Amino acid sequence: MWKLKIILPVLAALAIFILTQVYIVRQVWKQKDEVFSLKYRSESREAIHEMATFDPYNGFKKAYFIIDDISRLYLQKKKALLNPVDSVIFAQNLRESYTKILSEDQILSEYLSKYFDKLGLENKIKPLIYVNYIDLIDIQDNIRVYKAPLRELNNQQSGKSILVYTFNSEGNNYKIAFDYYIDIANKERTILRELSLTLILGILSFGIICAIFIATLRNYLEEKRLSNLKTDFINNMTHELKTPLSTITVAGKTLKHESVIGNREKIKETADMIGKQSLHLNEFINLILEISMWERTQFQVDRKETGVEDLLKDIAGNFRNGCGEDCKFTEHYDLKGARAEIDDLYFTTMITNLLNNAVKYSRNTAEIHLEAFSDENGINIKVADKGIGISRSEQKNIFDKFYRVSTGNIHESKGLGLGLYYVRKIAEAHGGSVRVSSRKGKGSVFIVSIPKTT
Ligand code: ADP
Asked: For residue range 56-89, what is the model confidence (pLDDT) as tens digits?
């Protein structure tokens, strides 16, 4: 839930950032597009101006000539038309045919292309003629045959084509006005090229912000996890300290009781209890001191070449004695006399931790199997149980400091979440590693691997 509380604002901030970036890029694109069109329009007008000095028809002389010629024929046809529907079709046909005639006259387009080329601009252009109106002229009257609808006109202008010039021409039999547009090939690509720096900067800043967000979030989550673990640890430690202390307090009160003062048997029993609990307290405090010492100084191991099988048998023997009737304990060794550089004390702590956990995390009678074998990679020691098991998601955390599998802070079984952390540390200090394979409810297998000397 709290993760969601952090992640949601972060996602919202990222979304706002992306939208702003997209908006900025779009605005810049629009501006670049306008500047692009403006440049080509003004250069085209310059060219048309220049051309007008030697060609008053702006390259459309041939087209005007044809138009004038056929306008006379069209005028005849127009006069013969009776109904208005035919008139509309007639106007459309007229427009199409004049547009075609004008479009086929490529002199201006070729001139513009050369002109652009000279300026180092994009020279691949596609001309577009858009007729605004056509009047057919009779001697007596002037008939407007076609007039471009306003909406269509606006559509054209807002498109990607660049309006260069509106030409007007008048002959004996016609009057025409048409827009001359050009489409520049590679317009988008050219703008994109100009925009690439903005885009790269946008993507880069997005990447940096994402990286910062992720790093901050990860740090925060790690801090939070450590703080949770510390709270758990303090709770568990308090729990561990309180139990023997309250037993000692109760025992002290018992000793003061009239009925106990004269009862030697009872006094001895209570004193034994106080002694046992003080010993437990002492061991516990020593453990904490040891931990803090391990933390302050580097993990120092004093390794000597040792026969692994003998050492393991010693550890197993002690464990079997301590475990008594509560566990079914089996052993199997296939070490072929393998030896390894080992610190006896730490190694014993490591294997004992695993064996104790196997008892601690089994429900009824613990069924534990200790197995050791040697292969070409080194020595492998397996501690297997049929206990409560560990879910897959927890398996990656159990070797972390203070980590305990639990739903609450205080656990059914005592512990500080340090046993496996030290198993890992000790295995690593021996140049080895530890791994677990487990299924919830089925049991666990811990495997320690260390290098061998022979
Ligand atoms: P502690 O036993 O003090 O909680 P450990 O570091 O030894 O701390 O173990 C960490 C956690 O791993 C334990 O809280 C327990 O949930 C789980 N665990 C360890 N060994 C076993 C095991 N053999 N079977 C099931 N769970 C285990």
From this structure: 899 999 999 999 999 988 888 887 777 777 888 8
- Minimum CA distance residue for ligand 1 atom 14: 404
pLDDT at 391: 92
Q: Would you state the structure tokens that stand for residue 142, as one six-digit string? A: 């002037």
C-alpha 396 – ligand 1 centre gap (Å): 12
Q: Is 405 in the pocket of ligand 1 (CB under 6 A)?
A: yes
Check: CB of residue 338 under 8 Å from CB of residue 454. yes
CA–CA dist 239, 103 (Å, integer): 94
- Which of 349, 353, 354, 405 to probe ligand 1 with, by most ligand atoms within 8 A of CB? 405
User: What CATH topology corresponds to 304-450?
Assistant: Heat Shock Protein 90 (3.30.565)
Residue whose entry in the numeric block shows the structure tokens 């000279």: 118
Q: Which tops the pLDDT comparison, 46 or 293?
A: 46
List of residues 6+ apart from 388 with CB closer than 8 A: 361, 362, 363, 440, 441
How many whole angstroms separate alpha carbon 166 and alpha carbon 177? Answer: 7
Please report, for the chain, the start and end positions of each structural domain, with discontinuous segments joined by +: 2-185, 221-296, 304-450
pLDDT in tens, 105-140: 999 999 999 999 999 888 899 999 999 989 888 777
30, pLDDT greater than 60: yes
pLDDT above 80 (res 147): no
What value does the mean pLDDT of the chain take? 86
Architecture of domain 221-296: Orthogonal Bundle (1.10)
* Strands 174-184, 162-170: pairing kind: antiparallel
Q: Residue 325 has what DSSP assignment?
A: G
Q: How far is the CA of 239 from the centre of ligand 1 (A)?
A: 17
Q: Is the dihedral of CA 85, 88, 93, 96 positive or negative?
A: negative
Give 338 Cα–ligand 1 centroid separation in angstroms. Answer: 29
Atom of ligand 1 nearest to the CA of 421: 6
pTM exceeding 0.85 = no
- Please compute the mean of the pLDDT values over residues 230-250 and round it to a whole number: 84
Domain 221-296 identical in fold to domain 304-450 = no
Mind giving me the DSSP string for 222-276? HHHHHHHHHHHHHHHHHHHHHHHHHHHHHHHHHHHSHHHHT-HHHHHHHHHHHHH
